[in-house]
Design a protein that fits this description.
The strands form 2 sheets. Strands 3, 4, 6, 7, 9 and 10 form a 6-stranded antiparallel β-sheet that branches. The protein has a 4-stranded mixed β-sheet with strand order 5-2-1-8, with no helix packed on it. It is built from 5 helices and 10 strands. The protein is an alpha+beta fold and about 290 residues long. α3 packs antiparallel against α4, α3 packs parallel to α5 and α4 packs antiparallel against α5.
Length: about 290
Amino acid sequence: MKFCKGSYMLCSYKNLFAKLCILLILTVILLGQTRAVKSLDIENGDLPIVQINMLSFDDVNAVLSSKTQLFFPPKLVSPNGTLKNEYNFIDLLNFGESILTIKGNKRYAAFDNGLSASYQLDDIVDHFYYPFDKYKINLLFFLDRVNANGTIENIPFKYNCDFCSIRGYNIITHDISKPNQNILTLETYIERPLSTRIIAMINIISMWVLSLVVVFMTISIAKSQMKPEIGTFGFIAGLLFTLPLIRNISPMIPYMGVFIDFIGFFINEFIIAFCMVFTAYYWIVRNKLETT
């Protein structure tokens, strides 16, 4: 405290630096996308593990692509490398082949026992609301086996969703399976991360700021008694080609015609084009005026 009394300015700079560091850390936490990946505990487990690997997402057609793999603990594998029973894994909502049969008389390899899947989500028009679009789907899986008596029975299993992530999206899963049932039901939500939403809104604000600058410039030309400089047309015309670039730097933005285009890009493009025509009109009308 005594040191701060003697050097008030130094303490102020230190407090400001500390606040900036805290703000930077909070920004990184909010905007960053992290994922904790846990290793599969197969050696000590008693139940098969279904691992869900999400690969890609088509927001325009609302199609989710993934690959599901089955991992069996050593207790269910014979010494010769074959499974002790025959298993059937069923992916109920898969567009393609939805049943994976793992024979008990063939050697088992985890990475050879996978099922590629494509899912049609509940709504195919939500991409219009970019960057606030949100998608939902329930993934349904169950596993059965053929025992020694030749009877098919459902068996319990665990799942691993550490790889339920896609670049540019937040994947949120909730296990809503009913108790005492061996059917896995994952309620899955896909949405844009906070960083994408912030960048998209900043781009919209930037377009509006540029448009307002051109509007004020046009009003100033209209009120003055001087003809506009020829370079003014180059500046305004350059903005007509700049706005599409600002629009397209938004992360993973869909094609033209989404929500932010109607509240930002289309309106501002029209405003700048109108101002350019208006400025050209004054340049033609005042062509004979001399600048003072």
